[in-house]
Specification:
heterodimer, A: 117 residues, mainly beta, seven-stranded mixed beta sheet, four-stranded antiparallel beta sheet, 0% helix, 54% strand, B: 110 residues, six-stranded mixed beta sheet, 11 strands, globular
């Protein structure tokens, strides 16, 4: 079974702090994703990485950066946390093989609920 | 951008009844997936249906896809209390990305 783990289930930080959210997958997947989930807004893609050191902005990248130094690890960084970044953060990974014929299945971690005070 | 939109937003049924959720989308797709999310947890993949398929089954799940109407439905038969969760449809985008809908919250009462 694919396993995606996230470093914390719950995190409380103060405004202005630098926050690191870590995600690790054990299935040698090329693709990794960071989403945030807010009530009424669903899942929104923050950043996407398709290979080591490669990244692509998602729909809401402002205020975030990412790092992918190793294939299995994808980090989300909040350079200066703000209260509007209080949210549930979900990491996911997927395999690149198969092109458009239906191998886009994403495997999710348990989520990190971040509160910024 | 949100492409998939689930309907209804919330659904409450009794154990043993069937639950049907719908998803509509706007642009052409290669495949459509359904995911489940238990409260406060990550999403779990349930089933994928390709654009050239019309119906797919997996256990108590039945998914249909109508590309002419740009819609899909998820049917859960003989529901159980453990099926209580949020259900999301997801459509493929470029570069292996997915667009998720806002979800249907299903409550199955014992």
């Amino acid at each position: 079974d694919v396993k995606v783990t996230q470093s914390s289930r719950y995190l409380v930080k103060r405004t202005g702090e630098k926050v690191f959210l870590e995600c690790v997958q054990d299935m040698d997947h090329e693709n990794m994703f960071w989403y945030r989930q807010d009530p009424g807004l669903g899942l929104r893609l923050i950043y996407f990485s398709y290979d080591v050191k490669m990244k692509e902005k998602g729909d809401i990248p402002e205020g975030y950066s990412v790092s992918r130094e190793k294939k299995e690890r994808f980090s989300l960084i909040l350079e200066s946390a703000s209260t509007n970044q209080t949210s549930m953060y979900l990491c996911a990974s997927s395999f690149s093989g198969g092109g458009s014929l239906g191998t886009d299945t994403q495997y999710f971690g348990p989520g990190t609920r971040l509160t910024v005070l | 951008s949100q492409q998939g939109e689930e309907d209804p937003q919330a659904l409450s049924i009794q154990e043993g009844e069937n639950a049907t959720m719908n998803c509509s989308y706007k642009t052409s797709i290669n495949n459509l997936q359904w995911y489940r999310q238990n409260s406060g947890r990550g999403l779990v993949h349930l089933i994928l249906i390709r654009s050239n398929e019309r119906e797919k089954h997996s256990g108590r799940l039945r998914v249909t896809l109508d590309t002419s109407k740009k819609s899909s439905s998820l049917l859960i038969t003989a529901s159980r209390a453990a099926d209580t969760a949020s259900y999301f449809c997801a459509t493929d985008r470029s570069n292996y990305k997915l667009t998720f809908g806002k979800g249907t919250l299903l409550t199955v009462n014992p």
